[in-house]
Amino acid sequence: MSWKNTKQNSFADSLVVEHKSLSELDDVHNIINWNEIEQTLSNLYSSVRGAPSYPPLMMFKILILQAWYGLSDEALEKQIARDLMFRRFIDLSLSESVPDHSSIWHFRQLLNTEKLLEPLLEQINTHLEQNSIIVSLGSINIIDATVIEAKQCRKRKGKNGNNTQDKEAGYNVKTAADGKKKTTYGFKMHANTDEDGFVKKMTYTPGNVHDSKEFDKLLDISKSKTCGQVFADSAYANKNNNEKLGKENNKILHRAYRNKPLTKEQKQENKQRSSIRYIVERTFGLLKLHHGLGKARYLGLERNKARAQLIAISHNLKTGMNIFKRMRNLRDCCIQ
């Protein structure tokens, strides 16, 4: 299947008056090698029959915009049609038609089916590392999980009398800061972030899966003998994790047990570790505040996992773009 040529400028494009608001997202192109991303996506459309389709790189950029601005598929279609900055970012000429919401939905499903979102997150992180935005040498791991309420979280009867709750979600019971237990029916996003809040790796599970179950997947200890220092709350504190990490890398909060309270030294260490561990909680807060992660948009685990992965990718791109701007401003000041 061939791809549409959406980049060729038309007479209408030449009439657009340049304005700084149109170039707000241009710095993304300075930190990411889109040619390599395009190669990763190049085999998505393998059929030689059918009408030309929209380029997969353009469709991927559209999903990035969706995650950045928290838009539904229908709202995203409308925004691309009327927003010059959106068209500029995805290289879509004014003379070209806009992908409809069903095309956007199908492409997101295709990325998930082909399991490309995790490799894309790793690839983008590699590009950020190559541009000295992500620091890998001596990087730490800050691990935690956050609860995401299911789209249909309450027990209600449907037309056929069956429960309409999302069958792939689960109940999570958590003790809040005020000591009261809070029950949420939904999912969990488990993440490993660095000290700058970049999402290094993430997994997605039903809400009833214990945080510690995803510990090894987030660290990939099996692939590397040294993973660096690991900061996490006391839910991850157990004998197995202590042995895996060793004394030097283990920065998990100490846990008090019955008849074995924390010592003064352990309390002090917990305080120091918490001052670093909060970064992952801040990242979750940003994802929920700006990207709507706190509420699932779809039914089923896989669709919501794909959405969470796209949100993580977009968060890393936005964070990387902001750091790049600060680096450039600092460089310009030094030159002056």
Automatic annotation (TrEMBL):
Pfam families: DDE_Tnp_1, DUF772. Residues 24-109 form the Transposase InsH N-terminal domain. Keywords: DNA recombination, DNA-binding, Transposition. Residues 139-317 form the Transposase IS4-like domain. GO terms for biological process: DNA transposition. One of its GO terms (molecular function) is transposase activity. The keyword DNA-binding applies. The keyword DNA-binding applies. PANTHER family: TRANSPOSASE INSH FOR INSERTION SEQUENCE ELEMENT IS5A-RELATED. Involved in the transposition of the insertion sequence IS5. This is IS4 family transposase. It comes from endosymbiont of Bathymodiolus septemdierum str. Myojin knoll.
